[in-house]
TrEMBL record:
Domain Acyltransferase: 6-337
Keyword Electron transport annotated: no
The name this protein goes by in its record: Acyltransferase 3 domain-containing protein
Record's GO cellular component terms: plasma membrane
Annotated InterPro entries: Acyl_transf_3_dom
Pfam families: Acyl_transf_3 (PF01757)
Similarity annotation: Belongs to the acyltransferase 3 family.
Organism annotation: Peptoniphilus lacrimalis 315-B
Length: 345
């Protein structure tokens, strides 16, 4: 029996906390640019940008380092994600109907809802299921590469960092014309999440090297990435005269620095407490459930105008963190309950 990797549970726990935090903090986007509330929105939101890359790294860490894999199991897993995708969208639509009818006074027309879904207007949060499905579909090839590579993976990752993380990022952010030539390769696509998964596998394969990496440099790398995102968020918003979130949505060297540094730091942590191990295991096993359920609570908070977008006082900021804890706790509870119900059936 394999020993559970509690450090990876810690990684996934931090990632799901960051995900929920981002969605609760989203209300700050409607605030006046450079107001105290907007500044907190930028500072807090930028701190959490590692969530999706780290999830992909955690998936690759486990999946791409297997000795072999059953393609049928992969296809079943992807089919499961597809079914969850459809069911989640239906649940989100149904949950939104009371807001439409009683809060906004809009008519609920089933035909329009179906047509809207068929047009591809799905809940933005569900893109994560598409990303993970892509990571799983690449698994047979990913395992083959990781298993048989001899420094080729290191070369691939370095090339990716130079071309996609740096060159294309600079070209898109600062409109440097000479770098635009690289856009013909369409390097900034969803493939980046597969490479993040490959990075996770690379870290596990050469775990000793990464875990022994200087802790101070890892912390420094995280904060350099964080400050880089904050600085560019402010600079780009000032240039455009309105909130510019392109740095948050793009694949860039600063997000990479945060994600890699956090991942390595989490692997370094010594977890001795059995209580903490149980909590981390519980959250880690329910990350997908928490991800799907928390949207219902964040939608309720946003639609009922319960967002606390006035961060002029410390007490207002504390309310955000209280909301974060409550949403995480309720989402975890519902996820555990749903699992038990489905297992019985």
């Amino acid at each position: 029996m394999k020993q559970r990797d509690y450090n990876l549970d810690l990684v996934k726990t931090l990632a799901i906390i960051a995900t929920v935090g981002i969605h609760l903090n989203a209300c700050g986007s409607i605030c006046q640019i450079y107001s105290k509330t907007w500044n907190f929105f930028v500072l807090f939101g930028s701190l959490l940008r590692f969530c999706v890359p780290v999830f992909c790294m955690a998936t690759g860490y486990l999946l791409y380092t297997k000795d072999s894999i059953d393609i049928n199991k992969i296809l079943k897993k992807v089919l499961k994600f597809a079914i969850i995708f459809v069911l989640a969208e239906i649940v989100y639509r149904i949950s939104y109907c009371p807001y439409m009818k009683y809060l906004y006074g809009e008519k609920i027309v089933l035909h329009n809802i179906i047509e809207d879904i068929l047009q591809g207007n799905i809940k933005p949060h569900l893109y994560f299921l598409q990303i993970i499905s892509l990571v799983y579909l690449f698994a047979p090839l990913g395992i083959l590469i990781v298993k048989n590579e001899n420094k080729e993976l290191s070369y691939l990752l370095k090339l990716w960092i130079i071309l996609s993380m740096c060159t294309l990022f600079l070209a898109d952010t600062f409109n440097i014309r000479i770098f635009k030539i690289f856009n013909i390769y369409i390097l900034n696509g969803a493939y980046n999440f597969i490479i993040y998964a490959m990075l996770g596998a690379y870290i596990r394969k050469y775990k000793k090297i990464h875990v022994n990496f200087n802790t101070v440099l890892c912390i420094l790398g995280f904060f350099i990435g964080y400050l880089g995102i904050v600085f560019l968020m402010w600079k780009l918003s000032k240039t455009s005269g309105q909130s510019d979130y392109s740095i948050w949505d793009s694949v860039n060297i600063f997000t990479f620095l945060m994600s890699y540094s956090l991942f390595v730091l989490a692997l370094k942590v010594k977890i001795n407490s059995n209580k903490i191990k149980k909590i981390l295991t519980l959250v880690s096993k329910n990350t997908l459930g928490i991800y799907l359920v928390h949207v219902l609570f964040t939608d309720f908070i946003h639609n009922m105008d319960l967002d606390y977008i006035n961060f002029f006082g410390i007490e207002k900021i504390l309310i955000l963190f209280i909301d974060l804890f409550i949403v995480l706790f309720l989402s975890l509870g519902i996820s555990i309950l749903a699992k038990k119900i489905f297992q019985r059936n």
